[in-house]
């Protein structure tokens, strides 16, 4: 019998990413806009933007900008970065997701209230770099090995990168609370709702007994990687792909139930193309 295929109840492009893409693809910006960094971590979206005449430069390549307008990505940037761009004479369009803005505001609020800000996340992720750039002093914690940076800080004010898994962040918060020098800890949950919905949908997929997971998203998409991790840590094989051409028939051999999900920067048409290819492969197997 061909394997059953179940799509996650919530997956693919979130409103923050969609709004940023729509803004960049506005006809008024054709050939007039440079995006600093990847607007979203997805290769197909990047290809569409380039086809629209949008230029993309890295943060250390500001000298290469030749368009009048510049866009800050959905992941946000520090106020200093935005000011530097304005000083260079660019018109700055800010596509920072409102939920990333909320994270910035809460990190600064904790600092103002006398807490030592701690961001749970990846120090080299553009969203985290933006938050860090707006604080006087702070620590970025990815795992327990980073706790040494907190030594001597008695009052920790903790926020999270928006795409983290809540269970993992709560574990780290509990471990920080138990550090011998910590007298008080305030945690504000800044994981975004669309990410939580996608994580909850993974829980439902696992509950329906899938024995193979296909997770679609950019190779460098943090939230896509975490969706794959959530399936794999249950001992279920899970593959992170960007395109339908990457699917391999041997992954599906002998499988009963395939679960498909996608990160928050994966367009619906890419998900539909992967689903079609999975159905073809499953139907072709003996
Ligand atoms: S993943 Fe969440 S925080 Fe990031 S752009 Fe989407 S809605 Fe905004």
Low-confidence stretches: none
Which kinds of small molecule does this entry bind, naming each only once? iron/sulfur cluster
Structural class: alpha/beta
Q: Which architecture of the largest domain would the CATH scheme give at its second level?
A: 3-Layer(aba) Sandwich
Rg measurement, Å = 21 Å
Kindly describe this structure:
- This protein has 286 residues and is α/β, with parallel strands linked by helices.
- The protein has three domains: 4-12 and 193-284, Cobalt-precorrin-4 Transmethylase, domain 1 (3-Layer(aba) Sandwich), CATH 3.40.1010; 15-96, Rossmann fold; 99-187, 3-Layer(aba) Sandwich (Cobalt-precorrin-4 Transmethylase, domain 1).
- The chain is 38% helix and 18% strand.
- The strands form three sheets. The protein has a four-stranded parallel beta sheet with strand order 1-12-10-11, with helices on both faces. Strands 3-2-4-5 form a four-stranded parallel beta sheet, with helices on one face.
- Strand 10, helix 8 and strand 11 (238-241) form a beta-alpha-beta unit.
- Helix 7 (193-207) packs parallel to helix 8 (222-232).
- The model has no long low-confidence stretch (mean pLDDT 93).
- It binds iron/sulfur cluster.
- Iron/sulfur cluster binds next to helix 1, helix 4 and helix 7.
Report a brief summary of the structure.
The protein is an alpha/beta fold and 286 residues long. It is 38% helix and 18% strand.
What structural keywords apply?
single chain, 286 residues, alpha/beta, Cobalt-precorrin-4 Transmethylase, domain 1, Rossmann fold, 4-stranded parallel sheet, 38% helix, 18% strand, binds iron/sulfur cluster
């Amino acid at each position: 019998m061909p394997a059953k295929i179940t799509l996650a109840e919530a997956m693919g492009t979130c409103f923050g990413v969609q709004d940023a893409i729509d803004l960049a693809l506005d006809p008024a910006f054709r050939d007039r806009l440079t995006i600093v960094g990847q607007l979203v971590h997805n290769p197909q979206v990047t290809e569409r933007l380039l086809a629209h005449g949008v230029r993309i430069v890295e943060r250390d390549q500001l000298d290469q900008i030749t368009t009048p307008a510049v866009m800050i990505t959905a992941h946000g940037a520090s106020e200093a970065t935005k000011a530097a761009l304005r000083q260079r004479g660019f018109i700055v369009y800010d596509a920072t997701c409102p939920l990333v803005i909320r994270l910035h505001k809460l990190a600064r609020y904790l600092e103002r209230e006398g807490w030592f800000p701690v961001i749970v996340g990846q120090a080299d992720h553009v969203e985290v770099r933006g938050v860090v750039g707006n604080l006087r002093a702070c620590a970025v914690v990815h795992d327990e090995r980073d706790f040494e940076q907190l030594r001597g800080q008695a009052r920790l004010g903790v926020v999270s990168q928006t795409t983290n898994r809540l269970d993992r962040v709560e574990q780290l918060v509990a471990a920080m609370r138990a550090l011998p020098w910590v007298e008080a800890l305030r945690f504000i949950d800044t994981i975004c709702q669309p990410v939580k919905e996608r994580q909850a949908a993974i829980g439902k997929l696992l509950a329906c007994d899938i024995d193979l997971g296909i997770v679609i998203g950019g190779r460098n998409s943090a939230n896509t990687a975490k969706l794959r991790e959530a399936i794999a840590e249950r001992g279920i094989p899970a593959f992170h792909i960007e395109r339908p051409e990457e699917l391999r028939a041997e992954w599906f051999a002998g499988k009963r139930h395939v679960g498909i999900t996608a990160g928050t920067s994966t367009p619906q048409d890419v998900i539909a193309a992967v689903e079609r290819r999975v159905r073809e492969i499953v139907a072709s197997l003996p």
